[in-house]
Amino acid sequence: MSALSPTERDSLLAELRRRTTTPGFHFLSADHLTRLNESRSDGAPIVSLYLDMTPESRIGSAWQTNLKDLCDRALADAGEHKKAVERECERIHEALEAGLPRTGRGVVFFACEEIGLFEQIGTAVTLPNMVHVSDNPYVRPLARVRDENDRFVLALLSMHKSRFFFAQIGLVEEVYELEGEEFAVTDLVSKDQKQDRKAELRRQQAQRSAHALDLITKTLEARHVLYSAPADMEADFLDKLDQSTRQKVAGNFPCDTLASTAEVADAADAAQREVEAKEEVETLGKVQELLSSRAVVGLDDTLEMLNQQRVMTLVVDGDQTIPGGVDQTSGMLTTQTEGTYAATGGDVRAVPDLVELMLDKAMEQGASLELVHSDAGREALAPHGPAAALLRF
Q: Which of 26, 79, 123, 245 yields a CA-CA distance of 20 to 30 A from 199?
């Protein structure tokens, strides 16, 4: 196999680290969550700011108006730290003025200059405008963008340059470019020799691209791979993928290798949505198959299994907001919004979004998430209510 050299491999991994940690808007990764969950400030507070970045919000100064409102709220909650919070709002505004994310429907900032924290995250889904000022980052809403099935690597191949992107539906970020070897034209070779040499360079670039994709897919914990490749490179590329990556290849899509990031997002959108719908329907098929043993459906039964820490995969309508409550004695979730929780006798505290807490509790238990967004997935989930679960035991 024409694999990447050790130097090229190290360079690729270093570039992935650079592109996902340097200033700018990045996708949410496991590393982000780890860093954020470990962050705490004993002095100036951490500002956690969620901002709608839908197409409507990008028109004119709509996002600026929303940002100003959020910053006003942050200052109202700042107490004795008004100057520090004002500075964080300035840093957030400066980052947005420097350039809005090219794709996606939302942005999230976690900022505290005192502890060296400034994270910018783009989201593929719309999250409500909100701001929290406290000693630790407010990450709970990010649960809605942690659907493991919505994690793609897109590969655009060409003899001259292959490009690789991490993607969620509607959110695409370029993470690596692999230059091909240029063909040197001389008068000392025949036409046939030139053609043979070009064919060999195409083969080598296809195989090197396969090795690069293996590393990127593993490093970024992608669930699916979609690719665009010339016909004379496709077979060599697919043949040289390792088995684990090959199993993640979900299809291909037409795209110019010189396309902008936004154009790549548009080109891959239909293929990504098809994969998403298939995954959702297959997961709900497993739920139906295991209903008599290791699956439950309906909101109440799903909450009960979450409270018992038995959930292996949580399935929930990703666009629903359901009011509910939390037992203040045990932390158990309930559809009650007031009164006493029967199992413990504790008081119930009302919460506006039970789905958010369900996702949070599922992740705490190490469960995988299946957020249903497609029409086909919703049709399969509808007879069971807004939630279902596959169980560990």
A: 245
